[in-house]
Design brief:
mainly beta, globular
């Protein structure tokens, strides 16, 4: 979550979301962003992930989660379970569908020449 003064915050629930603890500011180290990275275009392709180690000033280790001509992805969300990121997002090819990917945290720190796992 983001506070009104643009700090990255987190709230946790110990009862499956019925109640929530107070907001806690996250460490500025190792921020993860997922977005459709196509500057200037009107397409939602590719779906890219990147890590920032300096409070969001720079983004490194760009990797594409999805990249296919004529396709589109949107509305990514990330939940962490242990050292794995559970990433959900919509895919538009052949009608709307919700996709789920499970990736180890290490995947985000190792760019590949293919830009996709």
């Amino acid at each position: 979550m983001r506070s009104v003064d643009c700090r990255v915050m987190m709230r946790t629930s110990r009862d499956e979301g019925r109640t929530w603890g107070p907001p806690k500011q996250l460490s500025p180290d190792n921020l993860l962003a997922i977005w459709t990275h196509n500057p200037g275009a009107k397409t939602r392709n590719p779906l890219t992930a990147a890590v920032s180690k300096d409070e969001g000033q720079t983004w490194r280790e760009l990797r594409n989660l999805e990249d296919a001509p004529g396709d589109a992805w949107a509305y990514p969300a990330v939940s962490w379970v242990g050292d794995r990121a559970l990433i959900t997002y919509f895919n538009y090819r052949g009608g709307l569908s919700l996709k789920l990917r499970s990736l180890p945290a290490s995947w985000f720190y190792h760019p590949s020449s293919e830009h996709k796992s």
